[in-house]
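User: ok so my PI wants both of these folded by tonight, can you help

Assistant: No problem, let's get them done. Here's the first:
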Amino acid sequence: MKLWQKIAALLLAVMLPIMSISMFFLVGIQAKSMRQIDEENTRYALTACRTSVSSAVKQHIGFVQDTTQRSVVQYFFSEYAGIVRNENTYFSLTSDGNYLFNNSPYDPKAVLPSDRLCGISDEPYSIITQRLTAKNGEQVWIGGCCFSAGSQEYTVYISMNVSQTEKRIAQMYGISICMILLSCFLTALISILLLRYITKPITKLTQTADSIAKGEYHLRSKYVSGDEVGTLSMAFDQMAEAVEEKIHALDTENERKQFLLGALSHELRTPMTSIIGYGESLLHMPLTEEQKRACAYRIIDSGRRAEQLSQKMMELVSLSVEQEINKTVFDTEHLLEAVKDIFGEKVVVSCDVKEIFGDETLLCSLISNLVQNALCASDKGKTVNVSVQLLEPSSIRISVQDRGCGIPDSHITRLTDPFYRVDKARSRKAGGAGLGLSICKLIAEKHGGTLHIESEVGVGTTISVIIPMHTV
């Protein structure tokens, strides 16, 4: 069962009992009020009858004998009953347990005996009423009271048929049931339409989630509103954006790793081919001592090249791991002296910064890689300039400048890619693997800095690394 169906069913399950109880409670109150009105009408009619008959009898009772008093009462009562009689109201008169006048089909004397009405109340004209259901199903109010005329006591009854009231009450209950059913139908219809409209964004979210799960990572729900569903949609889109970025990063990293493995395999193939070839020559070919010595040197050179390549790869992999480096404050001159010890007079150093905050070993490797690349790009006998300068407000620039052949603009953006080389033949001949600038870029990033390349063909290249002066 879908969500909107569950909510609609829940609304009906809650509303139907509440509406039914409320409607029947209101109808019950109205029915009780209508029955009370019928009882009051019965009392009022009985009181009017008794008062009218008593008044008429009292005006004439002094002129008649005791034997004819009953006839006078009976006469005036019958006259009054004839005047006010209608199809729903009947009157009865009894004395000594016998009917003197009775036009009621309900035998009121049997319902309210005279001994219940006369002589049992402190009030001389108290009225007792009782509601009964006749044999034919009619609803009747019976009322009775006593009055005296001369020496005689009389009992007056009124029988009022209130079946019309009961029919109206039944009609009210019927109308209430119809209204409840109609209200439930309209409530269900409107609830379904509203709930389907309200849950439409959730359906869209579900469809979008299914599409994203199938690989369409660019899809978004794009539902904007100020309610909870809008907040959910916004959070969903943010999650989808993060997932897409993560997947893109993973794809990029996977491509990078595949490229690195392919490039490493390609780079290792050359020295390994050389080692195998010269090794087979030593084993299977008749060579002079000088030729054997040349083969051995070639094997050693190829092995060193493979060793250097593996060391560079290990350094690149270790820098790619997301972990903090060991930064300390150290003397800049000590760093530059280490570089001069490696390259000697091939390097010209200038420095106006006394201290650097960073990893001395990594920064030494950075400068050494840059100098090595600069020397490879320069003609024999040319020097390379290394400078460490203070930049405002709180940065340090380490620059390595050569006067070599320069680099075309189309290659500059890819120079920091692993194994990328502008002149592959020249780089391989010089022993380069195309990893130096990749390592330099990672070292700069580990120090919170950036690497910049400026070059002009035929003039030379300047590579600068800018790092913060104090980075905690």
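One down. Here's the second:
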Amino acid sequence: MSNGYTIDFVGVGEESKSGDCIIIQFGDFTNALSLRTIVIDGGFKSSFEKVSEHLTNVLQIDKIDLVVSTHPDRDHVGGLVQLVEEFDVAELWMHLPWNHNEGLASKFVDGRITDESIAERLRKSLQAARDLQVIAEQKGCVIKEPFTGLSFDGCFTVVGPTEDYYEELIPQFDGMPAQRSALAYVADRVAEGFQVLKKMFASWGVDQIDDEDTTSARNNSSVISVLQIDGRNILLTADSGITALNAALDYVESKTGPLTYNVVQIPHHGSRRNVGPSVLNRIIGSPVVEGTSGHKVGACISAAPKGAPKHPHQAVINAVIHRGGTVSVTRGITKSYSYNAVDRPGWVTSSSEEYGFVYEAEE
């Protein structure tokens, strides 16, 4: 058997609050010693038990070769502290924004702010990420910052963000003292409890999303990565937005030319704020004629059982399907993609999402 992979989108999340955890194994599945294990994000703190059960009972491992913290939101980093504490983790990739504070004070109007006070503000506002760094250092993990070009085992590569782009985003992070640019994101959070829904009517091939990037800076700082196994390509996007995705795809294409992706993570739990027609054309392909087979891309969305209609948004699901892709949504259930891997007893093929010609969406 040649090299293969399993990619498990673990069904983490809390009721209507979506989270992310992806567990990857790759190598020669006829030789267990050749397999490598990567965990990307760990969901909320409360997600640890489910993640641990999957690692221990399904994959039957207690050693993790690489843990990747894509960005410091609690629905991604929350479960990683206990994971690193209780499992044998060789290497941790995470950004350390408090180490990128040189010259930041000059970007704010308040003259009392110093570079060190900015670093301290970041440590406090991103406490879960800081805790992850501390426990990893105590456990003796190798810690690397995942900027564009960093590679693991020759087949798993960070394609975004660059260090320069990451440092441009830091002053706009939540909790910073000025120039908060993501007001739409804040307003959206405030309005969550007052959702007004309206009925939407869709036509095949017509997108109901746009190319405007309204993603928060912290989400655009997410690690974007590509796994390449036996000529197959997997794109993992965390919570990144259009700007970050386009930059990452530019990097990929500068190295290899455009890639055809077999599996794609749709970012930010399928939010309509993170993808648009242009970037989906690059990742999935252009719209196809209804009834044709299309591009055969498997797209997965990690979303809570009661996350809809926001997570995932039907307009995003439609945009992938009318480009020929198939969409799977976790909704609390782990979804797995595999190639050249051993069968798992009791696991069955899950159904794909259907096209929504009529659906409800936020006003």
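The longest strand covers residues 4-9. Residues 242-256 form the longest helix (15 residues). Good luck tonight!
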